[in-house]
Amino acid sequence: MLGGKRLCEHIQENPLEMKKWVMGSKMEPLPKSGEKERSQMLKTKFLIDLGFTENSNEMEKALKDIRGRAWKLQERFDCIVKAGLDRQDVCKMIRVSPQILNQKKSVIELKIDLLVTGLGYPVSMLVTFPLYLAFGVLRIKLRTSMYNWLKDQGVVKPMLALRTIIGSPQKVFMQRLVNKHPEGPQVWQNLKKQICTE
């Protein structure tokens, strides 16, 4: 499939090419633009700047896991640093969970706000569990709300590990947290309805 931008560029560079086009006839593929290669090169440079080793397994995995243009990746990286984390810590986080850079800057900011404002946790908790940023906003809101309710009921410890609250599988979360209170399952259902309709 051919992108509109690429087609426009090709027509501007080769205006007489259109004379050859006939409805229903097979077209020759356009010559490669080199954009994919440039993008890959810029991503590689970005990852090298973060401390990845060129041509390593770690680099290959990160290149597969990370989506988006290099400048967007830098913007997302800077957003995490500006939230109050040390640059070196953010580099380590990306080495562990490169996919955290796959979200828009606004989504990263929202998730950090839910961590700090919603849970009352310091932003430094991301260093020990960077995968938090890869989970969906709905899951984070729902589990955060449930955890806060359970905490208010005095049935769970404050400052429980993020991995337990957000990262545990649904079945485990239900058994270890929601079912700790007799009203927990009903509160969970109510929160699901409320949060899903926001």
From TrEMBL:
GO biological process: DNA-templated transcription termination
Family to which this protein belongs: Belongs to the mTERF family.
Pfam families membership: mTERF (PF02536)
Record keywords: Membrane, Transcription, Transcription regulation, Transcription termination, Transit peptide, Transmembrane, Transmembrane helix
PANTHER family recorded: CGI-12 PROTEIN-RELATED, TRANSCRIPTION TERMINATION FACTOR FAMILY PROTEIN
Domain of life: Eukaryota
Membrane-spanning ranges: 119-138
Molecular-function GO term, any one: nucleic acid binding
Protein name: Uncharacterized protein
Annotated Gene3D superfamilies: Transcription termination factor 3, mitochondrial
